[in-house]
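Dear colleague,

Thank you for sharing your sequence with our group. We've completed the structure prediction you requested, and as agreed, I am returning the results in plain text so they can be pasted directly into your records. Please verify that the sequence below matches your submission; if there's any discrepancy, let me know and we will rerun it promptly.
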Amino acid sequence: MKDKIRIASGQGFWGDLMDAPVYQVTRGQIDYLVMDYLAEVTMSILQKQKNKNPEMGYARDIPELMIKILRSCKENNIKIITNGGGVNPVSCAKACKKVAADLGIEGVKIAVVHGDNILSSIDDLLDKGAGLSNMETGEPIEDVKSRFLSANVYFGAFPIVDALEKGADIVITGRTTDTGLTLAPMIYEFGWKADDWDLLSAGTVAGHILECGAQATGGNFLGDWESIENFEEIGFPIAEAYPTGEIIITKHESLGGLVNVETVSEQLLYEIGDPKNYITPDCVADFTTINLIQTGENRVEIFGIKGKPATPFYKVSCSYEDGYSAVGTLTYSWPNALTKAKKADLILRGRLEKLGLKFDEIRTEFVGYNACHGPLAPARDENEISEIMLRVAVRSQDKSSVERFGRELAPLVLTGPPSVTGFAGGRPRPSDVVAYWPALIEKSLVTPIVEIVE
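Please find the predicted structure tokens below.
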């Protein structure tokens, strides 16, 4: 058993800083590079890509990234774990194998974890008793399953552990929990058991801190962000983990950013519901037991975490087509920019109503005034506002109504308030609106598949 391991975050989402993984493997010592690419909407995008091309359906920048980091990882014995396999981890693995072959790097063992994609087996699972009702509203799945774009089970850390035990240098998964990517190396290296709830919860908390990349090292920081140095080469977080469950969050010294109790605390609060019950497939972590202490420059220790047994369910993330939408903008200039924009909105809504168009929702934002904070935006002297962007969005099951909305927006340039410019948008796209359907499924009904890709 190792006395410690260093697990480095390389991506916080699909589209994150491309140089971050390169920095992590070249600017200091690490044992594992973990990269989180998936969000709920990402799965529907990847499924659409696979429907068009059976070889696609994964984060396509992974092979390009492997060209930059694979040699360093192999030479320094750095293992890579990523859920960027999306809905097609096998194709992603094959693309990475090709990169290794093209670079002349031998002996790279790649494992995939799949079985999470249940889109084609929904009816069979329903026959076996999987209700799959919406876990937030209770609605039955029969209302929407014919419109599903994607359906994926959130697996946890243990299938990745299985892959590591098979000798994998790279593990590419489908829909694995963000936290599981970081927890898995700890289970594998330290021999933690499936019922070591406190230890599993400690690793889960570490995974939660790493999952959003630089958001734990000064990115998007609400505190004294102006004092943070070298955003240009911001260091992503590293979890220095110990067999006893203590974790040190740090970063490479040569990179920018900041690790302190405040930056780590902000990330700990990110996307948290009930802090006493942070539910994952591996355990239920109690975030109210977390202790943080600054132990040095850019070093925060996490300890004392308690956990509870895992539930008998996996969460299922589904997406489905839910109509059409369109967004259009107009920009009004001083003087009285906000007054003009508000009047234009009233005129537009009046015209849409007279036409008898059907919308599930019409939403207006005045960018430069209340687009971020809505009704919480403080009142301001309109003479202080130089310009306002009027942004109107509509959503409807009726495509013709959405199309007509776009045709009604542009005429405001000559048939509404003065001093207007910057018209854009207004046209719908097929299957434009993607809605989210969360559900639960008994773990006994779904089995992760772990295999080595030759």
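Summary note from our side: Residues 337-354 form the longest helix (18 residues).

Kind regards,
the structure core
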